[in-house]
Amino acid sequence: MNLPFEIRIALRYTRAGRRARRRNAFISFISAISMGGIALGVAALIIVLSVMNGFQKEVRDRMLSVLAHVEVFSAQGALTDWERVAQQARRHPHVVAAAPFAQAQAMLAVGETLRGALVRGIDPQWEPSVSDVAARLYGGALADLRAGEFGIVLGLELMRALGLAVGDRVTVIAPQGNVTPAGVVPRLRQFRVVAAFESGHYEFDSTLAMIHLADAERLFRLEGPAGLRLRLQDMHEAPRVAGQLAGLLEPGLIVRDWSRQNRTWFAAVQTEKRMMFIILTLIVAVAAFNLVSTLVMTVTEKQSDIAILRTLGASPRSVMAVFVLQGALIGVIGTALGVAGGLAVALNLDVIVPAVEAAFGVQFLPKEIYFISTLPSDPRASDVVPIALISLTLALVATLYPSWRAARLRPAEALRYD
Questions:
Q1: Lower CB count within 10 Å: N or C terminus of the chain?
Q2: Residues 132, 61: Cα–Cα separation, whole Å
Q3: Are the beta carbons of 324 and 288 closer than 8 angstroms?
Q4: Rounded Cα distance, 286 and 325, in Å
Q5: What phi, psi does 120 have (nearest 5°)?
Q6: What is the CA radius of gyration of the chain?
Q7: pLDDT for position 178
Q8: 370 vs 293, 366, 367, CA distance in Å?
């Protein structure tokens, strides 16, 4: 192999032959520990971030089973010409479906039990094209919502809180009252529960109710739908598509995407993810800087070898390159092992976690407590690549001081007692 002598010497020191292993067993052991520490830190960082991504994806998908990707409102109130606006919105290549809706806050009453709810008026014909709620119904179907029959679909937790079952009746109290000689009297209307839905997200399951759009217009005295719910080919493009639709549609319309509706939640998740990234990166940093002690011990033990190299004409830069390459090689191997191990675990959590639970008789996420009973994982290249680069950078930085110290070694002083 016609490799530069710096690389060959670095490989020899890292590989540690049989004689070197007997003579420098402790140094070899410390090198292996440094390599293993880097691998463990990188793997832990990849696994934790993959699990956090999995939880975020799971919650987001459950939210979007009820929410639309993009919503379009009219600044004047009712969107009376919603068919024309829907046609304009469908011209955008990313918009695949549109459905009208109306919604307002109301009170649901059963006997003496009252619960606040967001009552959404939907068109059963178009709603399945913009949400997955039709696939999450129990006891009925969206087609059971018929105009004039005043049927209602309740979130499962809301129905349990009210003590209702499919077929029971509930009184919906609208905030807009009727003006009478005795004062303002709230408008009341009895609805029959035709189905229940479970999105898996407690906020929606405990506060959302759906009725037919025509019934919502009558109950809340609306002149038409409040707006449109749009579904996109790619939910991640919602912010960009919403901005484009705001310029494409006629003036006076307000466009809002799903990320703006839940900005606080997503901001909290991103903050938590950043903090976890920083904390776990410190583990990688500790493992990487173990290289300092490893290389310092190597330099101390190899003083005579360094002096001989210098005597034979090796420059201080070449000596420094030897130990930089040795530390970089440890960092590369450790990072590669960490990435491979982390991805192997992250991609097989659905097999590993049940096996661990069965072996030890435990359950990490009991179904009785958590809505998400499995440990989700979503490894992303946008996380793995920065982790690998940071690990390699820290390992390289850790080699600088020991390598600089080796380059400053004077051959006469090193060989004085040999």
A1: N
A2: 10
A3: no
A4: 20
A5: -110, 125
A6: 33
A7: 62
A8: 46, 6, 5
Q: Which residue has the tokens 């709230």?
A: 186
Q: Closest Cα to residue 286, out of 341, 334, 348, 357?
A: 334
Gap between the Cα atoms of 405 and 302, Å rounded:
12
Task: Provide the 8-state DSSP code for 103.
Answer: E
Neighbours of 355 (CB within 10 A): 10
Higher pLDDT, 363 or 147: 147
Do residues 102 and 213 lie in contact, with contact meaning Cβ atoms separated by under 8 Å?
Answer: yes
Sign of CA dihedral 407, 409, 412, 418: negative
Contacts 24+ apart (CB under 8 A), 257-262: 257/69, 257/70, 257/71, 258/63, 258/64, 258/67, 258/68, 258/69, 258/70, 261/67, 261/71, 262/63, 262/67
**CA 284 vs CA 10, 274, 324, 334, 382: distances in Å:** 23, 15, 18, 10, 18
Query: Hey, CA dihedral for 228, 233, 234, 238, is it positive or negative?
Result: negative
pLDDT, tens only, 176-208: 766 555 555 678 889 999 999 988 788 888 899
Q: Measured between alpha carbons, how far is 347 from 276 in angstroms, rounded to an integer?
A: 20
Cβ-contact 304, 418 below 8 angstroms: yes
Q: By CB neighbour count within 10 A (0-12 exposed, 13-18 middle, 19+ buried), where does 168 fall?
A: middle
Residue closest to 294 by CA, chosen among 38, 19, 6, 82: 38
Q: In 3-state terms, what secondary structure has residue 138?
A: strand
Could you list the beta-strand ranges (E) of 360-411: none
What sign results for the dihedral spanned by CA atoms 77, 79, 81, 86? positive
Distance CA 394, CA 385 (A): 14
Which residue in 209, 6, 3 sits closest to 105, CA to CA? 209
CA distance 9 to 142: 74
Please write the tens of the pLDDT for every residue from 285-305: 888 777 787 788 777 777 777
Closest of 118, 97, 74 to residue 225, by C-alpha = 74
Which amino acid belongs to residue 242?
A
Residue closest to 155 by CA, chosen among 136, 135, 127 = 136
Query: SS3 for 240?
Result: helix
- List Cβ neighbours of 328 (8 Å cut-off, separation of 6 or more): 392, 395, 396, 399
CA-to-CA distance for 246 and 289, rounded, in angstroms?
Answer: 52
Q: First-to-last CA distance in the chain?
A: 32
